[in-house]
Design brief:
This protein is of the alpha+beta class. It contains 13 helices and 11 strands.
Amino acid sequence: MRADRLISIMILLQNRGKMTAKELANELEVSDRTILRDMDALTNAGIPIVSQRGKEGGWLLLDNFRSKLSGLNIDDMKSLFLFPSGELLEDLGLNNQLLDTRQKLLAAIPDTYRNEAQAMWERIYIDSGTWRQPKEKKDALNIVQQAVWESKKLKIFYEQADGEQKERLIEPLGLVAKGNKWYLVAVRNEELRNYRVSRIQNAKVEDETFKRPLHFNLATYWEQSKVEFVQNLPKYDVQVEIHTEIINRINFTGKFVKVIKTENPTGDWIPATLRFNDKQEAIEFILGFANKIKVISPKNLPDKVVSLAMSVIDFYNNE
């Protein structure tokens, strides 16, 4: 696109100071004549680009403009090399461009930034995957991407949490990678909704386009959505005393339980409040630590723990 090329010309001139029409043409893979037309367009738009004639001549931006073209500082430059994980780029069909893109960036940035940017590249690697979790089904991701890029309505067959599939006509606004999972943010019935891409069983891009909501910002919406999601999660709090032998294990495992607070220990026991999603989850977790967790409240919870323990004993006695 011409607009992208014009921006590229300005960035190249800012980074390299002066370039001939031929150098720009080779860099951008266009003809010399195209570059000359682009220079006319930039000049007519009020961009202070000037041409110096002679053996050492070329095109350059006036200094008072170059300093304002980009507010990039050294931290900005280094952050450009913190690419998302290869897995996410591969999902989007961009993984083959990763190395080449960083090489181009490295060649384009000013010498004063280059060493630190390369050091960042060599020392930081982002892996968004998990150790054992299998990759989610992403068959519909390419179709969803197309609808997002083209602002076209999307018909999906979506599997809900209870396994029931529903047909939905939505207006896709953007994709969000959360860990190694993809979520689609879309409008349905004039309300913003989140859809897990792995639950989209089938998708079809419609011919009809739509207008994006005015002032919609994907990142801002997602952060607000996360806060609301966590606030609406079911909560089941349990007052307990935890033996000092297992307190490190309790604090280490954040997958099943959240430690809300702990108090000063009384001998070998530490009073604490644990938060679970529901009662059954609490019962199973507490039983797993045998005589190392004492339930204080709710008052009827110890009976539930004992009942589950007895059912386990009966099961194995009858084997």
